[in-house]
Design a protein that fits this description.
about 575 residues, alpha+beta, Jelly Rolls, 29 strands
């Protein structure tokens, strides 16, 4: 291959190369960086060029080819002497008449080759400096990766700020919703029972209805804001997950762990925990993360709790055998089938996450909870909700119902939830807690002068304000309403005073009664705390039922004025 190159080069020097051969030589010199060094030495060409440019040498070349041969022979001791000898032979074979044109042609060819050689020398460093180029490329790549990391971190911080703002806003909205609910309760429960002037009834009722309509409109607006805030939070979390999943480098990252929601405790029987679609070894005290799916094996010999979930939002949830559920987040649980009993205490110290809302979804309807105890069962396109304490919103695309303590509602996928109806305590499934037969369902405010319930106070709710001045009488009492209507006994604890009153005969009044004649209670203004506990037997004996606890505020401007006097 080298001899063929030299023959092509010599042929070109003699002027005998065809157009195709000249193109081939040009292509060879342009594409192969080693060709110039194989064909000739750049230093040798430069020396020959200087020799040819000398006047005496040029004159000698016109007179004798032997002089030119001598020049070639004098270079024989240098590297590439074989090529020098070939040039010597070339010059010796040429006739004297051809000497001058040959010298000129040689000069032109040498200049061309010198240029090609210098081009080759310029191309050679591209090979020799490859490590340096790679270093530059690596440095640029590192700088680009660092810039990408900085951009991603800035984006993460921005989204985290938006998420924090959305969470703070959601808390504000929930506080507004609670305030509106309290205002509504005040209007409903502080309405005068019997107005003194008949013609004022219509005006007052219209005023009260207008106030309720205004509050209901405000509540709907706040609920819409709450839904929008929830969507904003969800979107921010999704954006944050995308930013965290981005990988500017080439090395693969381990999959990001989903958010920790709580733990699984007190398991009984077989169950499967799926995380990102794959089974995870789990047992008591196992961590629960967003997206986890739990399936508890059915058991015909056991109807208690197959497992208990303790979530960081203050929710304790018992799961019945044969239940399948998915933990989407602390605010959303999908009950695919089976039955759960939840004790939701958002205001307790167990709420580490600051979450104040929970939605349990079934195929038929959703349950929106803001602090309560309930039992819900999902079976295909049917959902059955039973309330033990508090109140929830039971809704689907066809309608909604607000379900209170010891009431139930049934929803189907293609129909609105049914109108709530009362239930017996023993119908509640309470998980690891024992089944109860009796319970205190509510309190009623009694006019002790007439022995009747004061209208608007049939069920005194937690946190209510009672304005004595707006009541038909100052002589009042509170009655515990039990399920069933008659139990063994009821014990009242008032303002931290245990066994304030123990009633073993119906009706069960906080101040007692004589032959169904209630005794009056004249409360002091301020906050009060009342707990009523039922028992299956008289005098506070037998099995304890479900107690009921409320806090309420008494407002009495007349008593305050008397004290000021």
């Amino acid at each position: 291959m080298a001899d063929a190159r030299h023959d092509l080069y010599d042929k070109f020097l003699r002027g005998e190369a065809s157009d195709l051969e000249r193109a081939e030589l040009k292509h060879l010199l342009e594409t192969d960086s080693r060709a110039p060094s194989e064909l000739f030495s750049a230093a040798e060409v430069e020396r020959d060029l200087r020799e040819l440019l000398k006047p005496e040498r040029r004159r000698a070349s016109t007179g004798s080819t032997a002089e030119l041969a001598a020049i070639a022979e004098s270079n024989a001791h240098r590297p590439g002497s074989g090529r020098a000898l070939r040039r010597k032979r070339k010059f010796q074979t040429r006739s004297p008449e051809f000497a001058i044109p040959a010298a000129v042609a040689a000069l032109a060819v040498i200049a061309i080759l010198l240029f090609a050689a210098s081009s080759g020398r310029r191309s050679t460093p591209l090979v020799s400096t490859a490590p340096h180029t790679q270093q530059n490329t690596s440095a640029e790549s590192a700088a680009q990766a660092e810039a990408a990391v900085r951009r991603r971190e800035a984006e993460r911080q921005r989204i985290q700020r938006e998420l924090a703002q959305a969470e703070a806003r959601q808390k504000e909205i929930i506080a507004q919703l609670e305030r509106v609910e309290r205002e509504r309760q005040k209007i409903v429960q502080t309405a005068p029972a019997v107005p003194a002037v008949t013609e004022n009834v219509t005006a007052e009722e219209q005023e009260r209805k207008a106030a309720l309509d205004r509050i209901d409109a405000e509540r709907r607006r706040i609920e819409a804001e709450l839904a929008e805030s929830h969507g904003t939070r969800k979107q921010a979390k999704e954006q944050l997950a995308k930013v965290d999943a981005a990988d500017p480098g080439t090395a693969p990252k381990p999959p990001l762990q989903a958010a920790l929601l709580g733990r699984l405790t007190q398991t009984s029987g077989a169950f499967v925990l799926l995380r990102q679609g794959a089974p995870v070894a789990a047992g008591a005290e196992s961590e629960l993360r967003a997206g986890d799916r739990l399936t508890f094996a059915p058991r015909s010999d056991f109807s208690g709790s197959a497992g208990t979930l303790l979530l960081d939002s203050g929710v304790a949830m018992d799961v019945q055998a044969g239940t399948e559920l998915e933990l989407s987040s602390l605010e959303h649980i999908k009950l695919r089938s089976g039955r759960i009993y939840s004790d939701v205490k958002f205001k307790s110290a167990a709420n580490k996450a600051g979450i104040y809302r929970l939605v349990v979804s079934t195929a038929a309807a959703d349950v929106t909870i803001e602090g309560t105890r309930f039992d819900i069962r999902a079976d295909g396109d049917l959902a059955h909700l039973r309330m033990e304490e508090g109140r929830t919103l039971f809704s689907n695309a066809h309608g909604q119902q607000r379900v209170s303590a010891f009431y139930e509602s049934i929803a189907r996928k293609n129909a609105a939830p049914s109108v709530p109806r009362p239930i017996q305590p023993e119908s509640l499934w309470r998980g690891r807690k024992e089944t109860v037969r009796i319970a205190v369902a509510s309190f009623s405010l009694i006019n002790t002068e007439t022995n009747d319930v004061i209208p608007g106070f049939e069920s005194v709710s937690d946190g209510v304000l009672i304005d004595i001045a707006r009541l038909p009488t100052r002589k009042i009492s509170l009655r515990a309403n039990t399920i069933p209507e008659t139990v063994g006994s009821v014990r009242f604890d008032l303002n931290g005073m245990n066994n304030y009153k123990l009633e073993s005969v119906f009706p069960y009044a906080m101040t007692g009664d004589t032959n169904v004649k209630y005794k009056a209670w004249e409360p002091r203004p301020g906050e009060h705390h009342l707990v009523a506990t039922p028992f299956t037997e008289a005098s506070g004996k037998g099995q304890t039922g479900l107690p009921l606890e409320i806090r309420f505020t008494i407002k009495d401007d007349a008593a305050k004025n008397r004290n000021d006097e």
